[in-house]
Design brief:
heterodimer, A: 114 residues, mainly beta, six-stranded mixed beta sheet, five-stranded antiparallel beta sheet, 11 strands, B: 115 residues, seven-stranded mixed beta sheet, four-stranded antiparallel beta sheet, 0% helix, globular
Chain lengths: 114, 115
């Protein structure tokens, strides 16, 4: 079975500081990995995805993530936080089999202070 | 670009009533997934369909059923509603026959409130 673990349910940073949201995965097959962002009372927006191509993945809004097989990690980073980045972030895992569900982590709430 | 369309956006039902949620996937997508997200929770996978056949099953209660139709849209039927069913219900779609390589696209969700 596949799963992801997000370390830290709440991360607080200052505006302009580095953002690091941690995600470790468990999968018996080559995984597909995703980061989604959810703003209050809104849907899930895809930030970026890893589907076995380049291990460093760049996404929207200046975010990027690096797939590290040796560490089974897919941490999300952004060099400089902005107030508008405050949201809930979910890491998720699936594979390339048709119909395989996307399994989410528990989520990390990012707070950004001025 | 066309997105995943869910209807209705909001729904209020009384206990023991039934509800039907609809999901229209992105054109060309052949796989549909249903998720339930309670307040402050992560999305929980309920059920999925690939080419109109159930492909994966998660924590879907026996009171709920779903199907995917010939035009690939899907409906989630919920009966004997309980207060605990109040949640945001998301539908997602993907192109399963190409190994989900485009990823999963989510609709805006249906907020169900059971009173």
């Amino acid at each position: 079975a596949q799963s992801v673990t997000q370390l830290g349910s709440h991360v607080s940073v200052s505006e302009g500081a580095l953002v690091l949201l941690r995600c470790n995965y468990s999968s018996s097959v080559p995984p597909y990995l995703f980061w989604y962002v959810q703003y209050p009372n809104q849907g899930l927006q895809l930030l970026l995805k890893y589907t076995s191509a380049a291990t460093l993945v760049k996404g929207i809004n200046g975010f990027e993530a690096e797939f590290k097989k040796s560490e089974t990690s897919f941490h999300l980073t952004k060099p400089s936080a902005h107030m508008r980045d405050a949201a809930e972030y979910f890491c998720a895992v699936s594979d390339n089999q048709a119909g395989t569900a996307l399994i989410f982590g528990k989520g990390t709430t990012l707070s950004v202070s001025s | 670009a066309a997105g995943v369309i869910q209807s209705p956006r909001h729904l209020i039902k009384e206990k023991r009533e039934t509800a039907t949620l609809k999901c229209y996937p992105i054109p060309r997508h052949d796989t549909v997934y249903w998720y339930q997200q309670g307040p402050g929770q992560d999305p929980q996978f309920l059920i999925s369909f690939y080419e109109k056949m159930q492909s994966d099953k998660g924590s879907i209660p026996d009171r709920f059923s779903a199907q995917q139709f010939s035009d690939y849209h899907s409906e989630l039927n919920m009966s004997s509603l309980e207060l605990g069913d109040s949640a945001l219900y998301f539908c997602a779609s993907s192109l399963g026959r190409e190994g989900n390589s485009d990823g999963y696209t989510f609709g805006s969700g249906t907020r169900l409130t059971v009173v």
